[in-house]
Specification:
By secondary structure, this protein is mainly α. The chain is built from three helices and no strands. The protein has helices at 6-11, 14-36, 46-63.
């Protein structure tokens, strides 16, 4: 899943932001689950990028 930047998030509607937030949270859950089971993440930096994107979405939602 592509990482979203602030400008892209601001241009989205409220419904789109909420939908993307759910998608990112689900993806984060899957990645963490993979690691918890004992597997190896394909891209170790992906988890931190997903967390940052979730934080961006939540911050912009609170601003509006």
């Amino acid at each position: 899943m592509a990482i979203l930047r602030s400008r892209q998030i601001r241009d989205m509607s409220d419904d789109d932001r909420t939908k993307k937030l759910k998608e990112f949270k689900l993806e984060l859950f899957k990645e963490k689950g993979k690691i918890d089971v004992g597997g190896v993440s394909d891209n170790p930096g992906k988890i931190s990028e997903i967390k940052k994107t979730i934080a961006r979405i939540l911050t912009i939602q609170k601003e509006m």
